[in-house]
User: Which sequence fits this backbone?
């Protein structure tokens, strides 16, 4: 574990912050070439990066506060809770909302833009989860598997060996990114890449949640993150179905 990578005077720079920043930078560099390949304005990448950062961090923080922090605790010590704690699905929702606003301002197809952004989102998530591993956050339930890990300086600390679910997420996301990146130049219908990403991401998160101790939902044995994952999968299916319907109408049109 390396919760603090280095210090600048009295300021500690956490490994999580560095990896999140690196994830955004990787996505930005790859995004520049992809948007140019699609013939879109290069300035759009900068605008979408700002939207992704603001929406991602803001949404991740808001959902974390909603799930984990009682309002009385937040009022008593707001700085403590604003300084740490994020949820991926909150960031995904926040980034999606601001991306939608950008596409509305620029009069672009939302799905055409998200088709380009989805592989970038996945690789950024993969890098960010390494930060969670380094600081000992979001780990899983106790395990005696050979690769189980303890996080004595984690958040919260544990000396019991647990599933390194952060590593599971990273491995799955690297595989998904490699698959999406390898097929990105194929002539798929608009929205197809977005739909496949939503479905794969939702299924992966739904399954890995069984190895974690996260916020329960109103359904016994199912977490809030799993409910969001189900909505994500259903959204992907609807996008695919609508795309297929549009294609059928175009094909049958005289």
Assistant:
């Amino acid at each position: 574990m390396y919760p603090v990578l280095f210090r600048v005077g009295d300021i500690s720079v956490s490994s999580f912050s560095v990896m999140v920043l690196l994830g955004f930078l990787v996505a930005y560099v790859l995004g520049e070439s992809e948007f140019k390949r699609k013939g879109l304005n290069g300035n759009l990448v900068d605008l979408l990066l700002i939207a992704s950062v603001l929406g991602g961090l803001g949404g991740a923080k808001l959902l974390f506060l909603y799930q984990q922090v009682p309002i009385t605790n937040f009022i008593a010590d707001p700085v403590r809770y604003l300084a740490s704690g994020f949820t991926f699905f909150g960031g995904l929702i926040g980034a999606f909302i601001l991306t939608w606003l950008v596409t509305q301002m620029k009069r672009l197809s939302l799905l055409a833009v998200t088709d380009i952004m989805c592989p970038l989102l996945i690789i950024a998530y993969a890098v960010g989860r390494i930060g969670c591993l380094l600081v000992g956050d979001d780990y899983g339930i106790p395990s005696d598997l050979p690769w189980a890990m303890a996080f004595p300086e984690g958040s919260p600390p544990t000396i019991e060996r647990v599933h390194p679910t952060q590593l599971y997420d990273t491995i799955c996301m690297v595989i998904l990114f490699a698959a999406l990146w390898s097929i990105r130049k194929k002539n798929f219908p608009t929205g197809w890449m977005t739909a496949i990403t939503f479905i794969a991401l939702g299924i992966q998160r739904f399954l890995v949640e069984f190895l974690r101790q996260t916020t329960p939902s109103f359904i016994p044995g199912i977490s809030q993150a799993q409910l969001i994952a189900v909505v994500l999968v259903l959204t992907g299916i609807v996008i695919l179905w609508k795309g297929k319907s549009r294609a059928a109408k175009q094909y049958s049109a005289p």
In short: The radius of gyration is 19 Å. The chain has one domain: 11-252. The longest strand covers residues 4-8. The longest helix spans residues 224-252.
